[in-house]
Structure prediction request, 414 residues.
Amino acid sequence: MRTIIQAQRAERDKLMALPYLSRQNQIASQEVLKSPYIKLITGPRRAGKSVYALLLLRNENCAYLNFDDKNLLDKWDEDLVMAILNEVYPDYKYLLLDEVQNLPDWDLWVSKLYRNGYNMVITGSNAKMLSSEMATVLTGRYLQIQMLPFSLSELFAYNGLDIHALSLDTQTQAMILADDYLHNGGFPETLQSRSLTKNYLGTLYDSIIWKDIVQRHHIRNTDDLYNLAGYLLSNFCNPFTANEVTEELGIKSVTTTQKFCGYLAEPYLFFYLPRYNNKLKLMKKAPQKVYVVDNGFIQSSAFNLSENLGRLLENQVFIELLRRGYDVEKTLFYYRSRNDKEVDFVTRQGSKVERLIQVCFDMSAPKTAKREIDSLIECAGELGCKDLSIITLSDEKILQQAGYTIYVIPITKF
Prediction:
């Protein structure tokens, strides 16, 4: 065990010495570190959780345990590990637990450490397991930070551009980067080798399904799971119901489909957006729209006969809204009017509808512009909302129509 922990210390020191781009986060790093609560960093595999944690603790005396290490799990002995940590990291102030959900009964152990005064930073790739178990065992005693793949703004910063201060000289480069991001997404390890993105993300996608779902939930019928994942990936941004998917894919039961959909959401692979309704029962019955955590997965693994730039942009906007702290079923929805007009995103603040956002890749065709504007205005009337936006690839203008002001915003300014 001492050899394992010493090897992990060498790994920690090597990772901390590397240069990194600081991640943009809603909560300042120092504010996070000052909190007495457990710092819980969640998100998909390879999105940068561990790097964020290491940067957070770079100038601090911290001990490190990586639970993605099979040797550590196989030889786990709680008392022995804590004794060796004190030897390898004398007088450490923080304890970093990486991918802790891989340890059986991790929540009980973490709870005991917290009661004994340990100041912990935890990372994990399973949304349901971490949030539900942390909420059960450590209610009100943890601070959760969601780490998603790089945003468009972070991609620009990685390439030396400030997305909020683009000059005429950088407009062409900015459009190339925006198009690149639309297709390839923002997983950190793909940024330096875009030619390998499809291969890398295809492997990561398979790894997430196998490690985080099949093995964890002991699934025997893997064909139905993979078929469902492929269906959702190819139908991103589209509404679906479990009944329809069950029939179309020939899955044994609706219950199995619902269970598998839940499993596919746990490792932050898919998100399901409900249709807004004041009545919870009706909202639960309506079709949900499915979104993917990163556009790169769509390009690398989805079966699409044609490229749909509008849906790629919509998926990008959805993930950006998550990054800003909106939460599906609580503050983020889609909406369909009584006349079947749809608005892509409804954001809510408390009980009040805050903003309606439509996504349209290109509004240059009058017919397209009319369709998007009419839908937005009709939904705004039904929901009593005045803050209206249309996100596009590059169009920018302010429209006045039917008593509403509509802001058409290019994705780089959104």
